[in-house]
Structures are given as C-alpha cells and as structure tokens.
Amino acid sequence: MDTIPEILAKQRDFFKSQKTKDIFYRVSLLKALKQEIMAREQAIYDALKKDFKKPEFETFISEFGLVISELNLAIKSLKKWTKPERVKSSMLTFPSRDYIYKEPYGNVLVIAPWNYPFLLAIEPLVMAIAAGNTVVLKPSELTKHTSQLITSIIQKVFPNTVATSIEGGVETATELLIQKWDYIFFTGSVPVGKIVARAAANHLTPVTLELGGKSPCIIDETVNLKLVARRISWGKFLNAGQTCISADYIIIKSNIKDAFIDILKTEIIKRYGVNPKESPDLPRIINKKNVLRIADMLKDVHVVFGGHVDIEDCYIEPTIIDSPNLNSRIMNEEIFGPVLPILTYNNNQDIENIIWNYEKPLAFYVFSNNSIFVEQIIKKYSFGGGVVNDLLIHFGNSRLPFGGIGASGMGAYHGKTGFDTFSHNKSISKRGNWIDPGVRYAPYKGKFNLLKKMFKYFS
Ligand code: NAD
C-alpha cells in the first residue's frame, strides 16, 4: 500500500497532467459518484444505524438527501460555474476585456467529523472534485462502519490519483497535516481546528474551518408556545442533539418559561414516548467518553425533565435543565447531546450579558413575531448563520452559504459557495491592441490634467 506522501505525490502528478481541468471528466466523476451512492442507499442507512443507531429517516433528510441534492446541483451547474466571468474594465486596463477564471487549487485535504459522518465527508468531496481538485479524505475514526463504506465508495468511483479515502485517527490526521496541501477543508471541534490552522500556516495553505460552539436560541413572549416547543423538540433532538448548529441553550422571556417547559415536555413525549430508550427514532451518543462527558454536565444542575443515562447503551434521555448557573460546566462547553438548558431574560441587557459571555456562535435562533426585535438581534450579534422561528433549516438551502465566524470557523460552503471555496479566483485582463493611449508613458509633463479627467470619467 502506498504511504501518505506517495499518495499525495501521485495526486500531484495527476493534477499537473491537466486531466481534472476537463469539465466533462469532472461531470463524469460526479455522475459515477451519484450512481454509486444511490446504489448503496440501504448500505448507508445500515452503516449509520450500526455506528450510533441513527434512524433511516434522519439519515435520509440530514445526510443522504443533502448529498444527492448537492451532486445534482453540481452536475447541472458545472458548465455555468466554470465559465470565466466577464467584468467591466477600468481606466487602468482600458482597452481590455477583463475576466475572473475559476482555477482549482490543486491537491485538497478534507478532514471530517463523526456526527454527520456521511454528509460532512462527501459534500466537501463533491465540491472539491467539481472545482477540479484532487482529494484525500479522512473520515472520522469514531464511525467505523460509515467510514469503511465511504472508503469503499470512493475506491469504486475514483482512481486514487483523483480521490482517495484514508481511514485513521489522530496519528493519521497528524501525518496528513504535515504534508503540503493546496487547500485544507476541516470540519470538527475548535481545539482541533486550531491544530489544523497551525499546520496549514507552515505551508501557507488556505483553510476552511467548520467548527462548533454554543449556539443560543431566544424566545420572546409574542410567540405561539406550542409551535415553538414542537419545532424545538425536532431541531434540538435530531441526531440526539449531536449537531454543530443545534440550539445549545435557550434564553426565554422569564414570564413564559414555566409554561414553555410544560409544553416542551409534552412535545418530547409525543416524539419519543414516555421511555425514549425504546424509541427507534432517538440515536445514541457516539461513544462512552461522550456519554460520560454529558452525564457530568448533569451534576449540580436542576434537571426538570429526563436525565436518565445508560452508559453501556450510550443513551442519554432528552433532558431539560432549568436556569443553570453561567459558571456551571453545561454553560461553559458545547453540549453536543440531547440536553437543553433554559435561561431567562427580562430585558435586552440580560440577553447581552449572556450572549457576549461567549465566542461568536456558529448558529443563532430567535423565535418571535416582533420583527423589530428580530432585526435588532440579527444586526447586533455576530454569528455564522441562523433561523427566525425554527432551528437548523438554513443548513438545508444550498443558496445560503454555510460557515462560522471567529471561534466557530472561517470560510463557507454549500451549493455554488462550495464550488467557489475550492476555486481560486484568477483575474485576467486581456489587453486590446487597437489603441495604446500615451497618457501613462513618461514624460508626464502636460498630461496630469488629462489623467485626472480620465479618472473622473471612469470612476
Ligand atoms: P474532532 O475535532 O474531535 O474531530 C474531527 C476530525 O479531526 C476527525 O476526523 C478526527 O480524526 C480529527 N482529529 C482529531 N484530533 C485530531 C488532532 N489532534 N489532529 C488532527 N486531527 C485530529 O471533532 P468531532 O468530535 O469529530 O466532531 C464534533 C465537533 O465538530 C463539534 O465541536 C461540532 O460542533 C463540530 N462540527 C462542526 C460542523 C460545522 O459544519 N461547522 C459540523 C459538524 C461538527
């Protein structure tokens, strides 16, 4: 088997051969990938079920379906996306025709997490290939069935000079990060994001970092509480709360908190029954280490619903925490599980005091029918992206760039933005030869006024 440097050397040679610049070749690869994924649909559901009991329904809406949509979009749009874009010329370039060419970076490294193990590995792969790069993908070591399946799909579809999957944990990732890549796309935690950024800096390699953090959800008193509770019982507990853009905690107007908690309890029971452990619709926590981490957060807080933990089964019951202290562990780490702390506010200052306590979050949610309040929130706080009156759904629109800001990440993807992420904008000015204005040439004497007039005309 080839070593990592050998694999990369082969991909580098292949990229130089110019074959990936051929749009028809790229489309043929994407079509083959789509066909293979479609053929393995059931195997994908089975793998995710084995890894953490993810229900087929959730795998379809949050992984399989999104990957197929991105593939369809890339296959349909690639010709348009790759066409050099004409822009207006300027005084300095006149006479010229000016263009932006989309150039693939070259050899791309993608490192994926475990929580949406299929989607977050394959979607960057699709857009990196669409943009004409070669790819080495490292899926997560924590979802071994899905990662093996991903490797087998990639082996079937791509020559390893174009794309390959290298399975492994920290050691493998570390060896990959030592190499010189032309682009690194990382999805995962903030501490590992910093390791990736440091490794990339050694070679001045551009990076996209899709990270996490504590994403808040504000609820004011203008809402229909039943509808809000229904939507939160979906978005918070999807994937058992192991979602980077999950609502990490709630800040609700204090006078409606108790009513909201009562309705939310009812909604959770409707979704998962009185014993959620028996529900086929609640995935498990990825491993014991994470169960213990979340269980530790439940100590010294006021659990008003749920709270049951079964370490052997990697099970944590959907849980509501009432008014935790801001110094508690649960309010100082990304929860990444089916546990929802509920804080209260009375005025805007209270909200500020909580939100500005934290780094810029990846997502932000506000439930309100007061459009002035909503606009204030959107403009005041800095965050990756968000939703008004629901959770998560902004992720599902490929026309909305998806990414973080500050500690929640840098760069974005989805749809055309994903293609752009993996493409360098190469600016080209094609100079006309039919005229060669003399104004720029020395001696400058007597030309300054003309230059200023031209400047005024063109700007
Ligand atoms: P993680 O950072 O532990 O691991 C992510 C990847 O990095 C894995 O492939 C892993 O093997 C590799 N890795 C781990 N340690 C490494 C090291 N020391 N050096 C190099 N590589 C290393 O993250 P995770 O636990 O898999 O995923 C959960 C985190 O990811 C959460 O913080 C979540 O918010 C975040 N996340 C973000 C997004 C997003 O789109 N922004 C999506 C999903 C998850």
From TrEMBL:
Q: Where does the Aldehyde dehydrogenase domain lie?
A: 7-428
Q: Which residues does UniProt mark as catalytic?
A: E210
Q: What is this protein called?
A: Aldehyde dehydrogenase
Record keywords: Oxidoreductase
Which family does the record claim for this protein? Belongs to the aldehyde dehydrogenase family.
Return the PROSITE patterns for the record: ALDEHYDE_DEHYDR_GLU
Q: Which SUPFAM superfamilies match?
A: ALDH-like
Q: Membrane-spanning residues where?
A: none
**Cross-referenced InterPro entries, in alphabetical order?**
Ald_DH/histidinol_DH, Ald_DH_C, Ald_DH_CS_GLU, Ald_DH_N, Aldehyde_DH_dom, Aldehyde_DH_NAD(P)
The family database entries (PANTHER family) matched by this protein are listed as: ALDEHYDE DEHYDROGENASE, ALDEHYDE DEHYDROGENASE TYPE III, ISOFORM Q
- Per the UniProt record, the source organism is Flavivirga amylovorans
Q: Which Pfam families match?
A: Aldedh
- What domain of life is recorded for the organism? Bacteria
